[in-house]
Specification:
The protein has 164 residues and is an alpha/beta fold. The protein contains 6 helices and 5 strands, in the order αβαβαββααβα. The protein has helices spanning 6-10, 31-39, 61-67, 92-95, 104-117, 141-158, and strands spanning 16-21, 48-54, 71-78, 87-90, 122-129. Strands 2-1-3-5-4 form a 5-stranded mixed β-sheet. Helix 2 (31-39) links the parallel strand 1 (16-21) and strand 2 (48-54). The longest helix has 18 residues, at 141-158. The chain is globular.
């Protein structure tokens, strides 16, 4: 599924924030938000927080900083020219140019702010190659399948984390 396994992404992180990024008005660009919506009710560990950031990640910087995560995992639609529905792991700063334009400026500022205030936090981006970004469309079947599979995989991996 991924070039890097989820257990490698999570590593030894004990406190994790998962941010679902995207815009539900633009088809596959809703990917990160949909993953967060589906995942949130499945996570019972108080050391894992799932946030639906939509296209305004800066609104959630305060809660992220107060949570003091070991890992900040951004779930986002991405357009790098790959096969629709393919999941990729990337450094968020390196992948910014491939994210939807509505996310780029705010996310860059927010990430820089968070990195400054959370120097010990690891930042990872898990992106899904979009297929359809037309207004008021549903997720394409490829992206929908990837979202569902990712939710199940994340749930399974996050259940392994011991609560403090």
């Amino acid at each position: 599924m991924l070039p890097m396994e989820l257990n490698e992404i999570i590593g030894n992180a004990k406190r994790i924030v998962i941010c679902g990024l995207g815009n539900e008005k633009y088809g596959d660009e809703a990917f990160g938000v949909i993953v967060a919506k589906l995942l949130k009710p499945l996570i019972l560990n108080p050391d894992v927080t799932v946030i639906e950031c939509h296209e305004i990640p800066e609104k959630h910087a305060g809660p992220i900083i107060r949570f003091k995560p070991d890992l900040l995992l951004l779930i986002s639609p991405i357009n790098y020219g790959g096969k629709a529905g393919k999941l990729v792991v990337a450094d968020p700063w390196e992948a910014l140019e491939d994210l939807p334009e509505t996310l780029q400026p705010q996310l860059r500022v927010t990430l820089n702010h968070l990195r400054e205030l959370l120097p010990d936090t690891r930042f990872m981006l898990l992106g899904c190659q979009i297929k359809d970004k037309r207004t008021f469309r549903r997720l394409s079947p490829e992206v929908k399948d990837s979202a569902k599979a990712l939710v199940l995989s994340l749930k399974k991996e996050l259940e392994k984390i011991q609560t403090s």
